[in-house]
Write a structure and sequence with these properties.
The protein has helices spanning 6-30, 37-58, 82-93, 101-106, 133-152. By secondary structure, it is an all-alpha fold. It has one domain. The longest helix has 25 residues, at 6-30. The model has no long low-confidence stretch (mean pLDDT 83).
Length: 155
Amino acid sequence: MSKVNFGHAFERWYKLTDAERKRFDDEQKRGTTPLYLEALDHLCGLAVESGMKALMFAAKLEKPDAYGDFPKNPSTGRRPHVDELWDIFIAKASGRKTSAWVPRLGGRGTTPANVFQTWRAETRYAPDGTISEGIVRARLEMAKRLKSIAEEEGL
């Protein structure tokens, strides 16, 4: 079994997210929105999660498990998703050479709020209005900022 490559995963999820965002914007301009915000939000969460893992592994802020994946939380027995991983990433990236990442994610040189705190994998299929366009746009902006950092780090 091959090991997980989060840099590759991030690139693929980010491209899908960006393509769907462009499609969503085009549909909105035409007055139709067949793509649910929840689906776009889900793709964005997967992209950011993969990107954070790739950056943490590359900077040796976290050690992957035997499968190359992010280690499980010993108290829960599961791997964190973007909603929990965000706070882990910010805490680990606040030191050493990676400290420049955190203010860049905040946009104005500040520590960013966890815009993924309410992100849940199970909301991806239900276009029930639980995800607002404003939340999705904030998360997409965070994905773009993370992408910029990842490119500079050679991922």
